[in-house]
Structures are given as structure tokens and as C-alpha cells.
Design goal:
Blueprint: E1 2-6, H1 12-19, E2 27-34, E3 40-44, H2 48-63, E4 66-74, E5 76-78, E6 83-91, H3 94-111, E7 114-118, E8 121-122, H4 127-134
Parallel strand pairs: 1-4
Antiparallel strand pairs: 2-6, 3-5, 3-7, 4-6, 7-8
Helix pairs in contact: 2-3, 3-4
Length: 137
């Protein structure tokens, strides 16, 4: 299990290929979030953020048959088309991989301590993100 918060970009393909090295893996589901239209700055609490992400991954592992997982979230100044986040989940079967990947992303949006600032100011959490996370309870 790999949980990283970093300023530098990541190679999503290489990260997913790394998850496929285990012969028990039959599926890798992934999500890559990308900056839309407006530049932004992402901030976090070092240490606290990584622990929150690990807790989310651990919860997913308790619900589904997750063989491995990678979560990489970027911080700092980002411009449109930059990658923000990668969630990749490896499992023996696609159902577990899809569900765990979607769960991790939904909870990441609502439970991990990140703050997003755009030109107009700090961005508030969206009700739709909270609703997406609620369906997993």
C-alpha cells in the first residue's frame, strides 16, 4: 500500500503497472483527477493528511478484497490539465477493484485535510462530494 502527498507530477501508467506485478492481481481500477479550467493551489497538513489517507485505504481493505493500492495526491500550485490525484486499486476481481477505488476517492474528497484555493479564493466543500461519501455508510 502506497500513500504519498507530493508537489511533483506522477506517472499514472507506471504506478498502475507496478500494482500488476503480483500474480494474484486480476484487475486494477484507477482514477486520475485533473485540474479543470482555473489554476489552483492545494495545501495540506503534513503527517495528518497522510494518516487520513491511510485510514481511508485501510477502511477500503476491510470492505473489499484489495491486494494493493496506490494513492498519490499533489499539493502546491497546479494549472489546468495538471494531474491532481491518482487512486489505483489492485484486486483479484474487477468488482472489488472498482468499488474500493470509488470509495477511496469519495472519502478522500470529504475526509482528507486538503484545502483548495483558486483565483477567487478558498473553495468550499461541495454538497455533492458529501452525498457521494454518504452512500458508503
Amino acid at each position: 500500500m502506497k500513500v504519498i502527498v507530493q508537489a511533483q507530477d506522477f506517472d499514472a501508467g507506471a504506478e498502475m503497472r507496478a500494482l500488476q506485478r503480483n500474480r494474484k492481481v486480476g484487475a486494477v481500477a484507477s482514477f486520475v483527477g485533473v485540474v479543470r479550467e482555473v489554476p489552483m493551489t492545494l495545501e495540506h497538513y503534513p503527517g495528518m493528511t497522510e494518516r487520513a489517507l491511510q485510514t481511508i485505504v485501510d477502511e477500503a481493505r476491510g470492505r473489499w478484497q484489495v491486494l494493493d493500492c496506490t494513492v498519490i495526491h499533489r499539493i502546491g500550485a497546479l494549472k489546468p490539465t495538471d494531474q491532481i490525484v491518482l487512486v489505483a486499486v489492485a484486486s483479484a476481481h474487477r468488482g472489488d477493484a472498482f468499488a474500493a477505488c470509488e470509495f477511496i476517492m469519495d472519502y478522500l474528497k470529504t475526509q482528507a485535510p486538503f484545502w483548495k484555493k483558486e483565483a477567487a479564493g478558498w473553495v468550499d466543500a461541495r454538497a455533492t462530494d458529501d452525498q457521494a461519501a454518504e452512500r458508503w455508510k
